[in-house]
Write a structure and sequence with these properties.
This protein has 324 residues and is mostly beta strands. 7% of the residues lie in helices and 67% in strands. A hairpin with a 2-residue loop joins strand 10 and strand 11. The longest helix is centred in the first third of the chain and has 12 residues. The radius of gyration is 25 Å and the shape is elongated.
Length: 324
Amino acid sequence: MRKACFSLCFLASIPLQASCYWCLDYSITTQLDYGYLRRSEIRNLRLVEDTARVKGSGRFKKVMSTEDLVDRMNWESAIRAGLTYHRNDKTSLEALYTYFFPWKGTKTVTADGSLQFPFIDPVFSEDYTGADKARAEYESWLQNAELNYWGHLTPSRANYFAFAWILGFRFLYLKEDFDLKFSKVGSSSLYAIETKNLLYGAQLGATLEINPSKRWTWTFQIKGAGFLNVAETDLCIGDENNTIVLKEFTKERWTDSYLLEGYGQLAYHWRRNFSVHFGYQGFILTGIALAPEQRDVKLKDRRRVHAKGQIVIDGLYAGLEYSF
């Protein structure tokens, strides 16, 4: 057992290069990645029901839900750019920005005058009962920015194993639109919701790097962040061919949000200062206002921002790094 522990420690301390550490030869590293990701998770809420179809429990059959829209969101692209300043072999400063192309889910249902929105008391509405058609569109935009300080316990790409801890600041902006349109003969009305989440907070993380050779590097990273979230909801319910407004308000709320992220990557160092990499990333974000979850079935004067939603985003990345 002692021999095994000694061998592992010895292996971790073996330098891979007889020359100086690469991070002392280059001060700046640039990074450009392309990602292909999916967005999932939402509370499964009823959006449209068919009064001509009754379940055994006596409830009208649900023909559209929030999960239906999320399930119809395709995988979308993302662009990530990074810039790292290597002060020495022990510390680095990193700036990252990611733009996620919007996810969009749509669904249309039709019936012979039997569709309705699940209001507690539907008699208050005209176009949302006895409708022939209902169409929903749900779109979600996300941007991410990070500024991180890296503390390298062992220099990157110098030994078989390298460890680093991360302390940083993170900003996220999530904007969502939800439109639900009910139509019947001669009339159409729109149930529209827009939400915005501006998240500011600190994050901690750790990185394990495995260098089996000078050419190959495995990287495993985990981050956790806590945010102050400025969540806003803008809701408008039109009726009678959008000539009247059943309810309209804009409200803002401050709340706390949290993120947990994992990332794995394999890099091939084509040259000492140029590499290509492929990776998988996934994160869960909780404590946010999602547009469909703001739907109001009571039509009371109460104005609220429901900020208990969560999303999961995961997918693949491929990119390049160049140091100089």
